[in-house]
Every structure is written in C-alpha cells, then in structure tokens.
Amino acid sequence: MHRLPGRIAAVMVGTVLVFILTIAVALTWMSHALNRQAHDNAFIQIENARTSLLDQTRLLMLDYAKWEAGVPLVRSRDLSWIYDNIGSTAVAGVSFQLAVLWGGPFADDVGWQEEGGSDPRSGLFASDLLDMVEAHLRRIPLNLYRGTEFFIWHGNAVYTVAAARVEADAPDAVADLISRDDTTPRILIARRLAGSTIARTAKDYQLTDLNVVRQPPQGRSSVPLLGGDGQPVAYLAWSTPHPGTTMLRQMALPLLLVISIAVCFAGFGVGLVRRNAEHLVAAERHARTAARTDALTGLPNRAAFNEALNLPFAGERAVLFLDVNDFKRINDSIGHEAGDQVIISVAQRLARLTDPHCLLARIAGDEFVFLVTGSDTEVRTQRLAHAAERQLGAPLRILNHQIQVQMAMGYAIQLSDSTSGKDLVRQADLAMYEAKRHKGHNGLVAYSSVIDQASRDAGAIEGGLRRALARPGELSVAYQPIVGAEGQLVRAEALARWTSSELGPVTPDRFIAVAEQSGLMVELGRTLIDLVCNDLVAHPELAVSINVSPLQLMAPDFIPGLVDTFRRHEIATSRVEVELTESVLVDDARLAAQRIGELRTAGFSIALDDFGTGYSSVGYLEQLGFDTLKIDRSFVSKIRDSAKGIAVVDGMIRMAHGLNLRVVCEGIEAAEELELLRELGSDLAQGYHLDRPLPIEALAERWLRQAGRHLEVA
Asked: Cross-referenced Pfam families, in alphabetical order (predicted)?
C-alpha cells in the first residue's frame, strides 16, 4: 500500500495541531499586546489631558497679564476696573475660581474667589505659595509673553494655577510702562479641577473610575499632578483597561467550535489538497496582488500601505496625507466619470515623486498618502509637499473641462517607536483637515496637539449643528443694514447666527467652516434661506442680500431649489441679491459663470463679496456679469491713516464704476471713513458705524419704520 495517503494524513494532522497551537499562542500574545497598548494609550491620553489643563489656564492668565489696555490700570491699582474685568470672573466661578494680585503697587496681596463677594481679600493663598511663584517668575525675563503654571491642593480640591507679571509682552508696545521687576505687579489665577471635567475626560478616553486621589493608588494606573516644587500634590487615577483579556474570553467558545469543525474537515481535505495545490497557489498570488493594488490608479492601496507602515524601520519616518479639495463638487457638477479621470491624472502626477524611500498609496476616494522613511524626514516631507503643489499647478483637461486641482496636505513625523503607525496616520489626517479648513491660506500643515484638540472641538460643533438642523429655534438670521448716500436703507445683509443649547453661542466663521467640512453646508443654507423668506414675507418693504458658498453654488440642484423656495413664498427674486466670494472662481471658472448666469436669469442680482482678498480679475468681472462690488473691510480700514490706502480704494471704485457696477464699502467703523468714502464715490455703505447686525424685529424698528425719512448717520 502506497504510503503517500498516510503521509498526507499525517502532515494534515500535524498541520491542524500546529494551527491550533499557533492560534492559541497568537491570541494570547494579541491579548497581552492589546492590554499593554490600552494601558499605554490611556497613560499618554491622560498626560495630554494634564498638559492641556495647564495650557488652558496659562493662556487664560496671559490674556489678563499681557492685556495692553489693562496693564496701566492694574499698575495704577484701579481696584474697580480690576474687579470688573478680573475679580468678577473669579466670583462668578465660570472661567476660573481664584484670582490674586500682589507686588508692585500692591502693599499686600488682594484677591477674589468664587462666591466671595466684590470686596478684595488678602491671604487667599499662603505666603509660601506666593514666594514659590515669585521664585519661578524671577527666572523669566521682563516683558515676555510667558508665565509659570502648576497644580496645587487648595481646600478640598485640586487647582491648576498660572501666574505672570502684569506687563506688556513687547518692549516697544508700551515703552513707558517698562520698569524694574520689583515695581511690577503679579497676577495669579486658579481653576478648580471640577468633577465634570474629570467625567468628560473619562468619557472622551473611555476610562473607568477616573478620579483624583492624594496618594498613588495600589493596583490602578495614575499620573502625578505636579506642584510648583516639582512634587506631586495629587494623582489622576483610573482602572487599567484590559480589552485583550475581554476579547479572548468572548472568542473562546466560537474559536473552539471553529477548530472542531476544521478537524472534521481535515480528513476530507486530504484528497483535495494535492490535486488543487498548484491552482490555489496561483490563485492566492493573484488575489494578494489584487488586494494590495488600487484598481483605478494602479497605485498601492490601503492594505499595501498598512503593510508598509507595519514593517520595522530604523531612524525616522513621516506620513504626508493629501486630499483633493472639493472633489465631491467635481463629481456632482460634471459627473463621476470626470471624477475618476481627475483621480487618475492626480495619481500619475504624484507618482513621479516616488523613490525607494518614498511610497505613494491611494487609501480612499480622493485621499493619497506618502510614507517617507530614512533620515531628515521632516525636511524631505516638506520638499515633497512643495513638489506635489508644483506637479498639480497646471490645470487638468478632463472631458472638455479645464479643472484646477488643489490639495489639502498635512504631515506628521515619527521620531521613535513611541508613536504607532496607526496614530501617525491619524495625526497626519488631522493636520490635513486643518489645512483643508484653511484652504487658500496655507496648503501644508504639520501635526500638533493643538490640532488634535481642534479636531475634538470640531466634532462637538458638528454634532450640535446636526441637532440644531433637526429642531427649530437654535439657528437664526441677523441683518446688517446696507445704506445709501442719503442715509436710507437700501437692503440688509442676512447673516447666520447659532446659539447652541449645549455649546452656547458659536461664531459663524467656526460653525460654517465645520458645516463645509462635514457636508452640512447645503442643508444649513437651505434652513437659513427659509428663515430669510419668512422675514421677507413679514416685511414686504425689505430687500436683502444672502451669502452663498461655493459648495452651494456648484451643487446641481441648488439654483432650482432656491428659485422654488422663493416662488413658494411668493417673494420676487428682485428683492434678493446673492453674494459670492472670489473663491468660486478658482476651481472651474466656466462652471461658475454658468451658475451665475442661471441666477441672473431667475431674477437675482449678483454681488462679488470681499473684493481684493482672493483671485478675481477685471476680466472675470466683465465676463461673469456682477451687479455689485463689495470692497473688503481690510482696504476700508486703511483709508484714514494712509494715502496709499485711499488711492487703492479710489482705484477700486473707479474701476467698478467703469464696469457699471455699484460699490459697497464694508467694515465702516468711523464717521471719517464714511465721509471720505462718499467723497470717493462709494454708492453704498455697511459697517458698525452705521449699525450692527440686528434681529429682524430691531431692524424693522430702527430702519424699516423709518422708510418715510432718512436716518442721520454722523
């Protein structure tokens, strides 16, 4: 009897046993690795949280200590001003709970504490604490934007404290206030480490039993909170997570079942293995290659990139993350076939930059990454990013469309094994999104802890905004008057406002940027336009201008939906002027011209907002058919003190009138500016000197009911 079948059976049985043993060892090792990684990640996150608490307190304190307008008032011991601007904040206990000033004009220390009343008190802190702060401050040169910060145990709670001299941070800013150290007052503020802060930190990092203790706990992880003398005053302690052990317990029973089934089928597989071995090897090789290659571009895909990222490395490495700006708009406006061609062209241009120490991969729809290894990675990565900008500088010709592609780029550097490959990619991704948020200002951003915090803040804003869009009452519209030469109201600019039930008032520049990044801009614009329509129906004499973002304008269904909205409310489109910024002209000027033509056909007038700050030219102004030119406040603010500023604005106004455009000057904050702009020929004016953005009721009271007479504007 031929021994081959028996040998095959023996090999299969041995293989199964080795397989079972390997799985057991691998799962045990993975469990320990996950437990250790969870412990290390929690430790790093809590250390970052500790640093963030000190940074927040220091920055808050420096705002008061280096406040140029407040320095002379503190030095003159103006206790009324000091209470109104510093002490009252401590008494309210919102931003900080303790504030103490001493030194210089203060013979004794004076301070305020939460719920302590308006009268200043001495002795809120022991003298040895103030002496220790003094020792720290003596090591800091005069007139620098610096201070000292640490933790203290005060009463029954831990506080973060920060202190600095009350002085200007630039010698030439307030030269008459520079003096010796012994004549300079000091300020110290303290913020209590509240239970809500600890609970929020525990929730953010998914930690159990996070709390503050006085002594290092046994059997729990902890991070010391260091005082001014470098010794711990307390500890942040938490229960060490064990995700690997939990996973192992959950997998035990299913794994035993799988192994049992595998053993049963092993005998059946003996006969098939020999016959199909060669076919399986060939199929496996083909599948592995396909699984590691992007089908559209032929570049390595996410799986191949992750494999390279997990390889051992010596020295440094960096990840450069690139994302095509407004790629969704390209797909929506000229089709997915064109979008695919854009991705292929971008990949071909970027592939020219690779070398043996630089891997390029496409890891998502419009996302590319470079993995840079070797020495001097930061310098090489920066050069690589600039080279990528040059490669993409020439427009792409796609399906008879000329498309100017811009990419947001962010990078992160790994100098040691302390950062995992996954974290390195996440950091580069965050830096890229920061670059995307500031599109047009800086195409390349390096990762920092500030970006990490900003990402978490943006996530909170996005969540709150989604809830605000789902329920009425939080979003509103304010109107800033646009006034004619005789002081009459011509129209009012509609401006978005949001007061979140969770976050409080959120500034438009912040939540609109988040809306654009998260894909909420079109829905937000639709909601705001509905609010404007309600106000136009209630006030038939009102004309408005509305701001439309490039994302809204380029959406195929935006203009039909806009026209339908005004038709449903029976509002004449002639009462509405659409304001567009110069950024709409960058990516696809031909498509922008088409959309602007559709708006004009529907009866809207068109204004070019923030003129002079972006990309427009006289040629664009002639071709695209604007009705109004709005000169940006950055030019208006220079006319009072600069002959050059006057000449620039005068040239803009003459050019606009030569093109038969009305001129609106924005950001007027003084009567002298208004008078000079009228002399230069500005048709309309807008700014805080005329009026601030108002709720519709206040606008109606102050302006619409004055329709019979002109308001006097000094």
From this structure: EAL, GGDEF
Contact 493, 482 (CB under 8 A): yes
Check if the beta carbon of residue 221 is closer than 8 Å to that of residue 234. Answer: no
Of 117-126, 363-372, 513-522, the one with minimum mean pLDDT is 513-522
Please give the C-alpha separations between residue 475 and each of 502, 580, 701, in angstroms, as whole numbers: 13, 22, 22
| Residue 83 DSSP one-character state | I
Q: Which two tokens stand for residue 51?
A: 């640093």
What's the rounded Cα separation, in Å, for the pair 196 and 93? 14
> Hey, which residues does 577 pair with through a beta bridge?
545, 605
Helical (H) or strand (E) element with 13 = helix 4-65
Closest CA to 381 of 451, 306, 297, 447: 447
Query: In the structure encoding, which two tokens stand for residue 634, read together?
Result: 């950055």
3-state secondary structure of 583: helix
Residue 530, pLDDT score: 94
| Nearest Cα residue to 699 out of 474, 526, 494, 500 | 494
Distance CA 64, CA 120 (A): 17
**133-147, 219-233, 559-573, 575-589: the lowest-pLDDT one:** 575-589
454: nearest Cα among 427, 420, 414, 418: 427
Give the residues across from 579 on adjacent strands.
547, 607
At residue 238, the 3 state secondary structure works out as: strand
Helix axes 589-601, 558-568, angle to 10 degrees: 20
DSSP secondary structure, 105-151, as one string = TEEEEEEEETT--SS-BS-SS-HHHHHHHHHHHHTS-TT-S--EEEE
Token duo for residue 130: 């103030």
Q: Residues near 85 by Cβ (< 8 Å), separated by ≥ 6?
A: 64, 70
Domains in the chain, CATH or no CATH each: 43-170+180-239 (3.30.450.20), 302-447 (3.30.70.270), 471-712 (3.20.20.450)
DSSP one-letter string for 589-645: HHHHHHHHHHHHHTT-EEEEEEETSSS--HHHHHHHT-SEEEE-HHHHTTTTT-HHH
Q: Quick: pLDDT tens for 62-84.
A: 999 999 889 999 999 999 999 99
